[in-house]
Amino acid sequence: MLEAQALLVRDEALHRSLAENLAAGRPLPDAIATAVDGYAAQLEALEDDYLRARAADVREAGRLLLAELTSGGASRLDGLERPSVVVAEELAPADLLSVPPELLLAVVTETGGRQSHAAIVARELGVPAVVAVAGAVAAAGAFAAVDGGEGTVRFSDRLDASAVRARSPQLDLAGLPVRIMANAGSVAAARAAAAAGARGIGLFRTEFLYLGREQAPSEEEQAEVYASVCTALHPHPVLVRTLDAGSDKTLPYLGVAVEPNPALGRRGIRLWLDQPQLHGPQVRALIATAREHTNLQVMLPMVGSRAEVEVARALFTAEAERQRTRLPRLGIMVELPAVAAALDSFAGLIEFASLGTNDLGQYALGADRELSWDAELGEFHPGLLRLIRGAVELGRRIGIEVGVCGEMAGAPAGARFLVGCGVSSLSMAVGSLATVAAALRGSDREDLRRQAEAATAEPDAARARARLSGGLDPRPAPS
Questions:
Q1: What is the pTM for the complete model shown?
Q2: Catalytic residues
Q3: Domain 179-469 - what CATH class?
Q4: Strand 143-147 with 84-88, pairing
Q5: CATH second-level architecture of 84-163?
Q6: pLDDT (tens digit, 9 = 90+) per residue, 401-418?
């Protein structure tokens, strides 16, 4: 997100507008504000909620630019030294990432929405956040009771002991019927996951190292990041996904031609294997990290064939031999229906698989996950449930672990279904850990197995979800 903002301030049209404002005699702050506000106003006039929310990102880019030019403080949270509830008119990703996550007890802002980048970063860091609270700054007292789940905030000048709910700094995720892990896309997010008690990183996205820059990251830069994440989560496993670029995550410095349908084009492992400048440094960095950190595992995205994995495994094996070290456990993301239906064809080649239910769902249902669809075209569609259940069974048949790192894992009903199918782990946003743990605590695997079996027999998504949520009437599913 920060690198995307850096791209915004390099925009030639913005430069021209800024130059015109300066030539007209406007002072620097006014020249920047006028140029940036013009673009923001255009976004705010659009009907699409997501695009309207991007106006705040444009204005934030202008604020950061001005701070850089005037040597002012770029972060609104400069000086925060003790754990606090932060109340502000608005906050940006740069603000939240400028301080250690443990200093952010909660965040309350007057502006923003669920799709705002600050809200997304707060979720990634596991920080309770309530946005769009009108008059929050004026109403703030010495204390605040913030419930991120319910979206409520109560300010007071006195500490209300009855409103304080004691909580451990770490969740107790032991004793559950499955390993609960976290997804992360940065070192800060990984450390937040460790602080929350996650029992590993089930998906570490390496894209953030590659996006929004003029050249691919070096081997040394990558190795430092991977080592930091493995150290933060030790001794729990860290599943590092090799670069998943292509489609909506473009790398301009590659000079790859635009494809007519990039979502079905050269992306994930297809692009990675085709570009030595991508796979070479990453393979070397991952093997170097595995030499010192035994909890590192490697996961290949967007796999479509056994041949792709054979080539990738050969790259890692050759590098491990060159560095005279061990080969880390190697697995694949299951995101294509064809792979889910034929997971047993990878026998003897991989040690684990992870179901990416977001992409698996959109490819199985032909429904772009970035768009709004009726719930019937969602993750509880009976066909998708049967595909997932079948893939887990195929994994069991060939003796590999099958986990899940998609959004489905972070929803109570989805988690119950997946555990009932027999998955080995669930990985989710840090903010979902407590909810999923509560939904699974005390559950019996056999009961969950029966629920999962019943859900796959239902004729539609609504009844399948109700079956898993305990809200379905006792009538049997149609035969």
A1: 0.72
A2: 117, 405
A3: alpha beta
A4: unpaired
A5: 3-Layer(bba) Sandwich (3.50)
A6: 999 998 899 999 999 999
